[in-house]
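Subject: Predicted fold for Endonuclease/exonuclease/phosphatase, 164 residues

User T.R. writes:
Posting the sequence so we have a shared reference for the thread.
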Amino acid sequence: MVSLVSSSELVAGDFKMVLDAHETLGSRSPARGSCEDFRSMIKDCDLVGIRSQGALFTWVRGRSTRTRVERLLDRVLVWDGCISYWREFSCVALPCICADHCPLLIRLSDFKVSSHRLFRFQSIWLEHPDFTAIVSRIWSSPVVGRPPHVVINKLRSLKKALKT
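User M.O. replies:
I've generated the structure tokens; pasting them so everyone works from the same file.
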């Protein structure tokens, strides 16, 4: 795993698993349970797959058409909140030339600098008659995602509610 920016992750490489039967060519279908486990892991980790361009399958075994097996084993997964940090985010599966796996070329460009200011507590908010109720309501509201994502969204909601 490579840390890109605070609270953002990118995971790339050979996962030795496919998500579904359409990611396999020339062999029997993969075990349904292992595909479901892989999908669950991706979902549980709040990751999303970056669709790669180029080669459809990233792993090849066998030379003849009769024995050849191809699979999409290599992929790029990113934390779903990470994509918004770049203007361009792409992956290209290059041709398999000297190995059985295709190299992945990952491009991250034009890092977006956040124009948002930090959350700063204003002591005047304590004088607001509904301060405690507003904080309780916002903080108890459900937000789905990784802990940093949850805190950031709740602070944004709290700031907006207290400014009105």
